[in-house]
Structure formats: C-alpha cells, structure tokens
Amino acid sequence: MSIFIAIILGLVQGLTEFIPVSSSGHLEIVQQLIGGRADNFHLFLELINFGTLLALIIYYRKRIWEILKDIFGKNHNFKLAINVIITCIPAGVAGLLLSKFIEENSFFSSLITISIAMAVVGVLMIIVDKLPKLSSLKDENYLTKPRALTIGIAQVFALIPGVSRSGSTIVAGRLMGLSAKSSADYSFLVSIPLMTAVCAKTLLSSSTRAYLVDNLPTLILSNAIAFIAGLAAITFCLKYLKKSNSLKAFGIYRVIVATLVLIIVLVR
Q1: Rg over CA atoms, the chain
Q2: Is the dihedral of CA 118, 157, 17, 47 positive or negative?
C-alpha cells in the first residue's frame, strides 16, 4: 500500500468513524475507487482503529473517570456502566460469530451493497426526527435497560459496511427518547469497550502482528492522522448535534454519496 493511500485512509477513518456516515463504507469506497482492494486490506483497517480509539479515550477521559468513580467510589452507581455493557453485548456476540463471514464474503464489500446500505440508513436519518419518540429523556443516564438493549440490537446491523455503527446507535437512541447529542455521547461511550476489544483481538493474531511489524512506519503515520481527524470529528459532531438536534444533514449526505457511487459503478 502506498503512503498516499495510507494517508487518505487514515484521514477517512478518523473523520467518518464518529460522524454517522459509515467509516467502513467510506474506506471500502475510497480504497476501491483509488487503488483497488489491496492484499491484507482488512488488516490495515483493523490496525488503524488504534488511532480513533485513542481519540475517543482522550476526548472522554473525564467522563470515563467519572464513570469509574461512580462504580468504585461511595456512590456505587452502576447504572450507566451496566447499560453500556448491555448495549455492547449484541454487537460483541454478532461480531464474534459473523465478522469473519462478512469479511470474506464479497457481497458485503460490493460497492452496490455498501451504497444501498448507506442510502437506506440515510433515509432513516432524514425521517427519524419526525417519528414519535418513546419518551423524552434528559440524557443517557436515564436510559432503561430494555432501551439500552434495543440500541445494542440496532448496533448489530453496523457489521454491514455502509450502515455505520455510530449511525445505527444514534438513530436508535433518538427513537428511545434521547436527544441527538445525548444519543451521540452514548454511542461514543459504547464504542470504547467495543473498539478496545477489537484492537486487543487484532493483536492476538500472529499474522496481524507480522503485518504490523512489516508496515509499522505506514501504520504509525495513518494512525496519527486518524487520531487527529478523529478528535476533530468528535468535536464537530457533538457541537453540531447539540445545536441542530437533527440527523437530516448526515442523511442527505449519505444519500448523495450512495447515488454518486452507484452511478460510478454502473457507468465504469
């Protein structure tokens, strides 16, 4: 993989991991349109998750510390931590059972499949603000366990490139009664244990470790770019959602990108 493509993929990973437009979908689109699907592409994508994970931990370091103090301090408040675990379970189990199948099945890496998934979720984002919410919750601390599980089930669909993990959880959070900003906050908190588990699992493979050693300079550069872009994306997304309380703009963007990619695929 060339340095140029590695830089572009790091930038795309950082920007789209937290903005609900599908990082996996964008990475596949960019890789296939720029230079074709390189060998060990999935290993590269797994290893640039470290940059975006670090961005999450740095951004939410105070919130993480507050949750730990709630659990281990005098309050013994486990509610948010338990909800995060409940939300993680469906995607965690589905990932263990299905991730290899999805990774090896060309249907899921097809630009047509990705475009359709992006468009479908985009349409949902456009109409979600007009749907009745189950209730109006102050923030993610007020989620009930069944609603946390519902968000977790929605997150399973993010295994399909083009759906978006943050997109599926933010849409589900909105339907569960959270504001757009609170839905994003909860989505990002939930992604920390999931991404940590994915990164740890990645390093258990000897082939991945070998790939890491062989491509270390490129991966360091790509992760550094993903880290900086990820911090910028988190900040932008939360500020925008707090101000607008709407996913419509992201939905429109997804539909436009999906349409353009489909046109490119059909005419080339």
Answers
A1: 18
A2: negative
